[in-house]
Design brief:
The complex is a heterodimer of chains A (491) and B (131). With 491 residues, chain A is an alpha/beta fold. Chain A is built from 15 helices and 12 strands. Chain A has 2 domains: 256 residues, Type I PLP-dependent aspartate aminotransferase-like (Major domain) (Aspartate Aminotransferase, domain 2); 120 residues, Aspartate Aminotransferase, domain 1 (Alpha-Beta Complex). Helices cover 35% and strands 10% of the residues of chain A. In chain A, the strands form 3 sheets. A 7-stranded mixed β-sheet of chain A has the order 1-7-6-5-4-2-3, sandwiched between helices. In chain A, strands 10-12-11 form a 3-stranded antiparallel β-sheet, with helices on one face. In chain A, strands 8-9 form a two-stranded antiparallel ribbon. The relative contact order of chain A is 0.13. With 131 residues, chain B is α+β, with helices and mostly antiparallel strands. Chain B has a single domain, classed as Beta Barrel (OB fold (Dihydrolipoamide Acetyltransferase, E2P)), CATH 2.40.50. Chain B is globular, with a radius of gyration of 14 Å. The chains are: A alpha/beta (491), B alpha+beta (131).
Chain lengths: 491, 131
């Protein structure tokens, strides 16, 4: 379906005087707005709202929605993002009025059901992480990183230690250095070794008494479990530092390995990845953190506590770093995470991890003949293939392949991350994909790698917009419609 | 510019040193290989003239559609000039990385030893391995 209308802005569909519905004449006497409000509160002209009929609105947004790729419509192997299927059961449960129709200012006694759910979720996350103190407050994974680093800073302040540095390997998510800087630390990059793991020599060289936290993603962004993690934790702990585990890749080790057992002092979960919360559109995300007992007192306010059979939001915590989010965080995605955990149970979660790893390894075995996998024949939940040889051979890049995949109904894998591998594609199938889907993806990739340079460089051919001008989009972004805006196609 | 006269850092910056009135001035840019790896460039942040830089430390950054990458100083000294027109004409880096695409000029610190840098041949070898 090629729907040109859907590429227009709703403002461009506007016609003067067009309305969604025409009401009967009002039988209440009309009063001029200027007689009701002081002059200072009145706008000189009405806001430039689009004037459209109801079918225009419905068609516009429905058509727009069909131009998108989503987990509900396409295989979505976007590495590091864990685009697993979002069970509709979770949506139904999160929409129950006891969760969705309550007000954040309601007294604790009137929301005992929700508080019990959140308390139990805290307990579950503590069990899965092996770290006993939990805060559900952070609003996203990166916010969890920042919050945990603030907790670490409070801990060192109380100890009277001046520690100014946060370390992380060069394969880390960009959020790690950003969180470190926002929390007031200097950031130092540690090199990866040829295997893609942390280079211990470089770590030793950069380690001193000023190091507060070492941030590690394990399994890392190359899809490898860094088996040195215990040793790294020992090295950091011996210097008085803490280990932060970026939990982006927890899907690979759920119920199998616990970060608290392999040396982590703090970590975050991404409920939208690991616990199948929707990525967007289901409401904002969350990034709950779990920390070691000695750090628990510093967690943000409030924490859900249980006294006898009564649950409450505990604000009486003298050492807490305070609030990091209004009210009680983004509860909707937490409810979905809880439903997911209860649906699977402990055994089911272990199976989730096993199937995620199995699927990734199967796909790796199908892809490596076309695109080499520099880190070898085994991976955890995702793997990195490189188009470097293809680029040398015929000038086709990972980006070209990614764009061409769209024509065949596959969302592109993550490209050009991590930065340590040239021309990389980071492929993460997740546990919810069937062998048939994985085979179809591998076959398509095989077919594409054989196509001509011209065909690939001009891809995608089937989408309404082929390749946006990314340089212009970054340099001169047009983010807001104004009455003076001119649509690109009208120029 | 004769490329074989250039020296390089492992982090893909090139250096060209000339003596001027007894002072050694190093012109610094990034190699054609680096520009190609970065893909389409979007922004560049230049340092202030007068800033002291140390070899291996960041002096600015360049952003492409792929990522933000730090620019590392290959030498130690003081920045005496920056290519102010470059941030608004980033295509120059792709078209002419070794002449018009120069980024900064550094007055070398007296004690700085250029032998820590790679010569053209060693750098080409490094690129072949990375590419």
């Amino acid at each position: 379906m090629r729907n040109r209308q859907a590429t227009k802005l709703i403002f461009e569909l506007s016609q003067d005087g067009r309305r969604g519905a025409k009401m009967p004449t009002c039988d209440v006497p009309r009063q001029d707005v200027s007689s009701l409000l002081p002059a200072a509160a009145l706008s000189a002209s009405p806001p430039p709202l689009p004037e459209v009929a109801e079918p225009d609105v419905v068609r516009h947004f429905t058509n727009l929605s069909t131009l998108n790729m989503s987990v509900d419509t396409h295989f979505y192997p976007l590495g590091s993002c864990t685009m697993k299927y979002n069970s509709k059961r979770n949506e139904r449960l999160a929409a129950l009025p006891g969760f969705s129709d309550i007000h954040p200012y309601q007294p604790d006694e009137t929301i005992q059901g929700l508080l019990q759910l959140l308390y139990e979720l805290q307990e579950m996350l503590a069990e899965i992480s092996g770290l006993p103190a939990v805060s559900l407050q952070p609003a996203a994974g990166a916010h969890g990183e920042l919050t945990a680093l603030m907790v670490a800073a409070a801990h060192f302040r109380e100890l009277g230690e001046v520690r100014t540095k946060v370390l992380a390997p060069d394969s880390a998510h960009g959020t790690n250095p950003a969180s470190a800087r926002m929390a007031g630390f200097d950031f130092v990059t540690i090199k990866s070794n040829a295997d893609g793991n942390v280079d211990l020599e470089d770590l030793q060289a950069k380690l001193d008494d000023e190091v507060a936290v070492f941030m590690i993603t394990n399994p890392n962004t190359l899809g490898l479990f860094d088996c040195q993690v215990n040793e790294i934790a020992n090295i950091i702990h011996a210097k008085g530092g803490l280990i932060y585990l970026d939990g982006a890749n927890m899907n690979a080790i759920l119920g199998i390995a616990r970060p608290g057992d392999f040396g982590a002092d703090m970590m975050h979960f991404n409920p939208h990845k690991t616990f199948s919360g929707p990525h967007g559109s289901g409401g904002p995300g969350a990034g709950p953190i779990c920390v070691a007992e000695k750090l628990g007192d510093y967690l943000p306010l409030p924490v859900v506590t249980k006294h006898d059979a009564c649950y409450r939001l505990d604000f009486d915590r003298a050492k807490s770093i305070g609030r990091v989010r209004s009210f009680f965080g983004n509860v909707g995605v937490l409810v979905r995470a809880y439903c997911y955990l209860r649906t699977h149970g402990a055994e089911g979660l272990q199976q989730v991890a096993e199937n995620a790893v199995l699927n990734a390894n199967y796909l790796l075995s199908q892809v490596k003949h076309m695109l080499p996998v520099p880190q070898g024949d085994r991976c955890m939940h995702e793997f990195i293939a490189t188009a470097s040889e293809l680029k040398k051979k015929k000038g086709v890049t990972a980006m070209d392949l990614a764009k061409r995949l769209l024509d065949f109904g596959f969302h592109a894998p993550t490209v050009y991350f991590p930065l340590t591998i040239a021309e990389c594609m980071m492929i993460e199938p997740t546990e919810t994909e069937s062998k048939e889907t994985l085979d179809a993806f591998a076959e398509t990739l095989f077919r594409i790698t054989d196509e001509t340079k011209e065909c690939l460089q001009e891809a995608p051919h089937s989408t309404l917009i082929s390749r946006p001008d990314e340089v212009q989009a970054a340099r001169v972004p047009t983010l807001k419609w104004t009455p003076e805006s001119v649509h690109v196609t009208d120029k | 510019m004769n490329l074989e006269e250039l020296l390089y850092a492992e982090t893909h910056e090139w250096v060209h040193v000339v003596e001027d009135n007894g002072e050694k001035i190093a012109t610094v840019g990034i190699s054609a290989f680096a520009v190609e790896q970065l893909t389409d460039l979007v922004f560049m942040e230049l340092p202030q003239v007068g800033t002291a830089v140390e070899a291996g430390n960041e002096f600015g950054e360049v952003e492409s559609v792929k990522a933000v990458s730090p620019l590392y100083s290959p030498v130690s000294g003081e920045i005496v000039e920056t290519n102010l027109s470059l941030p608004d004409n980033l295509q120059t880096l792709g078209e002419d990385p070794y002449e018009a695409g120069w980024i900064i000029k550094i007055k070398l610190a007296n004690e700085f030893d250029l032998s820590s840098l790679l010569d053209h041949e060693s750098y080409q070898r490094q690129c072949a391995e990375e590419g």
